[in-house]
Write a structure and sequence with these properties.
The protein has 7 helices and 8 strands. The chain is of the alpha/beta class. The chain folds into 2 domains: about 5-55 and about 115-210, Rossmann fold, CATH 3.40.50.2020; about 55-110, Ybab, Chain: A (2-Layer Sandwich), CATH 3.30.1310. The strands form 2 sheets. A 5-stranded parallel sheet has the order 2-1-6-7-8, with helices on both faces. Strands 3-4-5 form a 3-stranded antiparallel sheet. Helix 6 links the parallel strand 7 and strand 8 (about 175-180). GO terms for molecular function: glycosyltransferase activity.
């Protein structure tokens, strides 16, 4: 199954998440690709939209291959892929510093919009446009869990079964539309999968606070 675009995937996710309508859920997107999706989901569920900032840690000489992920506090999830990819302890520490600095820069770009929404005591739905290794979602869920939500939900259109099983241990509820066995990259499951820019993210977030 391929999705036409992120908008179609978001509409299908919103339908699967309909039980949270009326609970004013906090819908958190992992920037940047998930932000347009989370906007649709938050609208359909009459919830609140915000972002959760995490960064992938890339493998040596293969920056697109995630060996883990880091959140704004500096906590990092390191997967078994790191060892297989030949990432030394020194490399991992340097990559963590690099990505943490990029996280801080992104927060500065977004921080003029409004104070971040407080997840405490709320239903929180963390959205991404798909999972590959699951590293960034794990970091995002862990970051939000520390803020004591009433219920923590992971919502994605597509993920391989083994990644889904691993990530589900970090959430109270897991919503995933498709779990294909033949999985190489999230983009293969979309007919139209353009990059989302920081400018688009800022425009969407600004609309929430007008």
């Amino acid at each position: 199954m391929r999705f036409r675009d992120r908008e179609q995937a978001a509409a299908r996710l919103a339908s699967r998440l309909a039980s949270y309508h009326g609970q004013h859920p906090l819908v958190l997107a992992i920037p940047r690709g998930a932000v347009p999706m989370a906007e649709i989901i938050a609208h359909e569920l009459e919830g609140e939209l915000d972002v959760v900032l995490v960064r992938k840690l890339g493998a040596p000489f293969q920056p697109e291959l995630a060996i883990g992920a880091i959140d704004e506090s500096g906590w990092a999830y390191i997967s078994d892929v790191a060892r297989l990819a030949g990432a030394s302890a020194e490399y991992i520490e340097q990559e963590k510093r690099t990505q943490l600095e990029l996280l801080h820069q992104r927060r500065q770009r977004y921080s003029g919009l409004a104070a971040s929404a407080d997840p405490a005591g709320r239903v929180v739905i963390v959205v991404d446009d798909g999972l590959a290794t699951g590293a960034t979602m794990i970091a995002a869920l862990r970051a939000i869990r520390t803020k004591q939500p009433a219920k923590l939900v992971c919502a994605v259109p597509v993920a391989p079964p083994d990644t889904l099983e691993q990530v589900s241990t970090y959430a109270d509820d897991m919503v995933c539309l498709e779990t294909p066995l033949n999985f190489s990259a999230v983009g293969q499951f979309y007919e139209h999968f353009p990059q989302v820019s920081d400018e688009e993210v800022i425009e969407i977030l600004e609309k929430q606070h007008r």
